[in-house]
Automatic annotation (TrEMBL):
One of its GO terms (molecular function) is 4 iron, 4 sulfur cluster binding. This is Hydrogenase maturation factor. Gene3D superfamilies: 6.10.20.100, HypD, alpha/beta domain 2 (3.40.50.11740). The keyword Lyase does not apply. GO terms for biological process: protein maturation. It comes from the Bacteria. The keyword Cytoplasm does not apply. It comes from Moorena producens 3L. NCBIfam families: hypD (TIGR00075). Pfam families: HypD. Keywords: Iron, Metal-binding. Belongs to the HypD family.
């Protein structure tokens, strides 16, 4: 506590830190365990780690790893598909830098780019469309990954490609939706989450009603906040106060539009529809949590254009990502932590990137690292 207070010098912040400690310590006798809060988004998770917010009230409060960035949860078979597309002749595969190191069965995109595959990192799907326009003799594929807040730009790009008749552009769609994924957490019989901090970026698109449903149906308090550590501290204080008072409410600290962005939602719904099932690495299938292109845009669907097989590769049987997500286990309690699953051979969601909680824990177990290496 002392070290953290020294790192946050302002009086208002010190007051919040002290309040968090007092509120969480008053809850642990009733719960008989630390209070467990989840920051769902990747940027919020990284803010918690980079500012060591898990040390605020070590004995009384725990921030549980959220879903993180969408790329972390890419299932093995979807990465394998992207690898196969990238190695086809006359193909340029484009994607975001965070996807490059996510492994399939044997390799990742960064490794096969080193062997000559034309794989380019971009900042937006519009960049991919421009590459297609500049390379008419090549098939340009955008490996699309992201949550609700990133789907709009992909939908707009597909719409532009259709309007301009750009036939050498397609999308390998792996957009995921967080709302069904949050429901999967709350439906878990072993749930150990007392409250959630949800990203303002997603809420600004979909609005507040989906979160209100969770509060009313599951009696879990939810705060909508941005990804700064100050916002997370304030959200934590508010959640703890609700728990002390015995309340479960939705509070919007980021002042997002209550109805979301209706124009953006209309554009997204014109281009995309939900998949009945989508597999999340290490967590299994989550109903209606993935998106695919509608039949009106099938000519831009890379799965159809390249006739990708429908085979599903199951995750390692003993990966226990869901128990880590729900706060039941710590990473080192997973049966394959360090042995079957390590940063060199990542099997589970939170080992696929150095920003994941399992990869972070791996770094502090040097004897496991030495054995694995």
């Amino acid at each position: 506590m002392t070290e953290l207070v020294e790192s946050f010098q302002s009086k208002p912040t010190q007051t919040i830190l002290q309040d968090i400690t007092g509120l969480s310590s008053s809850l642990t006798p009733k719960l008989r365990r630390p209070v467990k809060l989840m920051a769902v988004s990747g940027e919020q998770t990284l803010a918690i780690a980079s500012h060591n917010l898990n040390g605020i009230a070590l004995e009384h409060l725990e921030f549980v790893q959220g879903y993180g960035k969408a790329a972390w949860s890419l299932p093995i078979d979807r990465v394998n598909h992207a690898l196969a597309i990238a190695q086809k002749p006359d193909v340029i595969l484009t994607t975001f830098s965070e996807v490059m190191t996510i492994r399939g069965s044997q390799q990742n995109l960064s490794e096969i780019r080193g062997t000559g595959a034309d794989i380019r990192t971009i900042n937006s799907p519009q960049d991919a469309l421009k590459i297609a326009q500049e390379n008419p003799s090549k098939q340009v594929v955008f490996f699309a990954v992201g949550y609700e807040d990133s789907v709009l730009s992909t939908a707009q790009t597909v719409g532009q490609a259709a309007a301009e008749g750009i036939s050498n552009f397609s999308v390998y769609c792996n957009h995921m939706t967080l709302i069904p994924a949050i429901k999967a957490i709350l439906d878990s019989p072993s749930i150990h989450i007392d409250g959630l901090i949800c990203a303002s970026e997603v809420a600004s698109v979909i609005g507040l009603e989906p979160y209100r449903f969770f509060v009313e149906s599951y009696r879990k308090p939810i705060i909508i906040a941005d990804s700064s550590h100050q916002a997370i501290l304030k959200a934590t204080q508010t959640l703890l106060q609700q728990l002390v008072d015995g309340h479960a409410e939705l509070q919007d600290q980021a002042q997002v539009p209550a109805e979301g962005d209706s124009e953006a939602l209309q554009t997204i719904c014109e281009v995309f529809e939900p998949r009945e099932f989508y597999e999340w690495r290490g967590m299994g299938s989550v109903d209606f949590s993935g998106l695919r292109l509608r039949s009106d845009y099938v000519q831009f669907d890379a799965e159809v254009k390249f006739n990708l097989p429908k085979l599903k590769l199951a995750d390692v049987q003993f990966a226990q990502c869901m128990t880590i997500l729900t706060g039941v286990f710590q990473p080192c309690q997973c049966k394959i932590f360090g042995a079957g699953c390590s940063p060199k051979t990542p099997m589970g969601t939170y080992m696929t990137t150095e920003e994941g909680i399992c990869a972070m824990h791996y770094k502090v177990f040097p004897f496991i690292a030495a054995i694995s290496d």
